């Protein structure tokens, strides 16, 4: 018997705008009302401001590829940190390359804001390129 539903975020639980919507939230609520557990899962970090923005603060959350698991109240149920010696070795090995370093509290980045914004613009343009464009004439 099914007792647990787990859904990835990007491309699954989130819509084309990378947001939840009424249908998604209503479906999660129905799953929970029927006595099942619901978990969101993602490889990325899922900071509290994003949890609140997506309205996923009442579900269990697996983030950082399973390195962090939280209950609906935000209490940490499981956490696996990376050893500081390994982090230092990694930073030395890839010094000068663009990287994001994520923890539960925040994400540090060596990428400039301009570069991040340009990358985001290119991603949006790529998505728009794949959609039909209609001119409105009145």
% residues in beta strands: 15-25%
Q: Helical segment tally?
A: 5
Q: What is the H/E order?
A: EHHEHEEEHEEH
Low confidence ranges? none
Would you count the extended β strands for me?
Answer: 7
Q: How does the overall form come out from the CA principal axes?
A: flat
The radius of gyration computed from the alpha-carbon positions, rounded to a whole number of angstroms, is 19 Å
What kind of sheet is the major sheet?
5 strands, mixed
Class from secondary-structure proportions: alpha/beta
Calculate the terminal CA-CA distance, rounded to whole Å: 57 Å
Description:
With 138 residues, the chain is α/β, with parallel strands linked by helices. The protein is 37% helix and 20% strand. The chain has helices at 9-13, 22-33, 48-54, 84-93, 113-129, and strands at 4-8, 37-41, 60-63, 68-70, 76-79, 100-102, 107-109. The strands form two sheets. It has a five-stranded mixed sheet. A two-stranded antiparallel ribbon has the order 6-7. β4 (68-70) and β5 (76-79) form a beta hairpin. The longest helix has 17 residues, at 113-129. The radius of gyration is 19 Å and the shape is flat. The protein starts with a strand and ends in a 9-residue tail after the last helix. The mean pLDDT is 83.
């Amino acid at each position: 018997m099914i007792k647990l539903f787990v859904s990835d975020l990007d491309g699954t639980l989130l819509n084309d705008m990378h947001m939840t919507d009424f249908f998604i939230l209503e479906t999660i609520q129905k799953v929970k009302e029927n006595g099942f557990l619901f978990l969101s899962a993602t490889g990325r970090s899922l900071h509290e401001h994003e949890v609140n923005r997506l309205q996923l603060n009442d579900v269990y959350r697996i983030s950082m590829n399973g390195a962090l698991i939280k209950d609906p109240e935000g209490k940490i149920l499981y956490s696996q940190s990376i050893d500081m010696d390994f982090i230092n070795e990694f930073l030395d090995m890839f010094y000068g390359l663009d990287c994001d370093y994520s923890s539960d509290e925040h994400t540090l980045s060596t990428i400039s804001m301009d570069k991040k914004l340009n990358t985001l613009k290119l991603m949006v343009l790529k998505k728009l390129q794949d959609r039909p464009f209609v001119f409105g004439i009145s």
